[in-house]
Design brief:
Blueprint lengths: L1 H39 L2 H4 L3 H4 L13 H53 L2 E2 L12 E2 L5 E3 L1 E10 L15 E6 L5 E3 L2 E7 L2 E7 L11 E4 L8 E5 L6 E6 L2 E3 L7 E3 L3 E6 L4
Parallel strand pairs: 2-4
Antiparallel strand pairs: 1-4, 3-10, 4-5, 4-7, 5-6, 7-8, 8-9, 10-11, 11-14, 12-13
Length: about 270
Amino acid sequence: MSARLEAAARSGLRAQGSGLKVQGQLKSAQGSRLKAQGSYLQPSAFSLERSSLEPSAFSLQPNGFTLVELTVVSLILLVIGGGLLTTFLTGQTSYLSGDAYVRVQEEARKAFDNVVRELREAGWETTVPKPSPGLLYVGGGSGTSSQLEFQVALGYNLPSGGCELAPYAGAICWGAQDGSGANRAGWSVRYEVAGKQLLRKVFDAAGAEQTALQRVLANDVDAPNSSFAWDAAASVRTVTITLQILYQNSALPGGSQTTNQLTSRVRLRNS
């Protein structure tokens, strides 16, 4: 019995010794694993070189533009600004030229509308004396002048305004109307180019100007190139009006805008 117990004890000790030996081997393997892991984590394996952490020479330069860059940008902005300014000035000049063209055309049209309409009824009572010396008038001889004077056929055998008196009684009454629109026998109308204006003046039978009745028919008239011509020949009896409008403005190309010489011929109905 004791022999069996001894044998069992020896077997247990041998098994325990084997277990301890296995445990030692496990610890040895674990130590080798930790050693290998430690060598993997050593600083030399993942440390960065010092030169890679040092700031480069470029990063130490101050921020800003070089002189060449500033010069190039300035030139580009100058070219763009010059182009915009040129476009603006061109547009402004075009606008002024268009406006001036409309203006001169309007002045010319306004003048012709007034003159032509009234001249169609123009004439002159043959017994009435000639107006001021050197003045072209409808009823006198042919010629050209900056002034043209005429009378209008007011009506036939009129009972008032001097039309009832000789030489108009029982005949066509020649004259003009006063400011109230009343007929005035022997009065006359004068077109005159004075300075830069085309004027319409009214004179009474004694030749005195009625200044309150003066009207401006057109502005910006180019006097040297504007005139009236009267052809008194019986087969013609025509007034030729030559008019040129000149609008001056320093902002316009050449300083002015003008029309060509405009001409209108009016054949008198009542002369």
